Amino acid sequence: MLCLITGASGSGKSEYAENLVCRLAQREGIHQKVYMATMEWESGAARERIARHRKQRAGKGFVTVESLLGLRSREIRPAAHRTEPAVLLLECLSSLLANLMFSEGMDRKAAVEEILFQAKMAEKLYCHTVIVTDEIFSDGIEYGEDVRAYCQGLGLANRALAKAADVFCEVVYSIPLYLKGEAVCRF
What pTM was computed for the model? Predict the structure, then answer.
């Protein structure tokens, strides 16, 4: 199952996604929960956000894989756990896209194609894949050409993944609003 979770910054989407992964794993008796972190950690604000996310998922049994390039990394599943079924939480698509476009130098089209390829790969490698994304392009601010291309790429990736997903929801004030597939997530 592929699940895409979106929402504004601070909406509670990350916490909701973590809890969803835990519930899916528990429901199906899956012990491995993989948290794939894609955020670049060099800035102070990023370090604070990463620390908050680590604290938030502490004790939930996640194996964390830090991979700025997502599933392009050579260690897409921790070696000790490759034979067991697992649930993947990719946090988050907007960071992955930025890393592909700005660190790897991919154009918008190539980066979006890479993300869609990785989503298909994840569906083969994991029992369930939950992807968190952002809606940073809805702020109404005018940006330069590079950032506009990035925002357009994120919009394209979000649309394509929402279409392909079994479950698509927007989290608003920590409340999931299902746009597709709510029944799959009832527990």
Answer: 0.88
**45 contact partners, CB below 8 Å, separation of at least 6:** none
Ordered DSSP codes for 46-107: HHHHHHHHHHHHTTS-EEEEE-TTGGGSS-SS-GGGSSS-EEEEEE-HHHHHHIIIIIS---
Q: Is the pLDDT of residue 106 over 60?
A: yes
The mean pLDDT of 50-74, rounded to a whole number, is: 77
**With b meaning 16 or more CB within 10 Å and e meaning fewer, what string describes 153-181?**
bbbbbbebbbeebebbbbbeeeebeeeeb
Q: Give all strands of the β-sheet with 2-6 in edge-to-edge order.
A: 62-66, 32-37, 86-91, 128-132, 2-6, 167-172, 175-180
- The encoded tokens of residue 128 equal 């369930």
Q: Tokens 């991979």, residue?
A: 67
Q: 3: helix, coil or strand?
A: strand
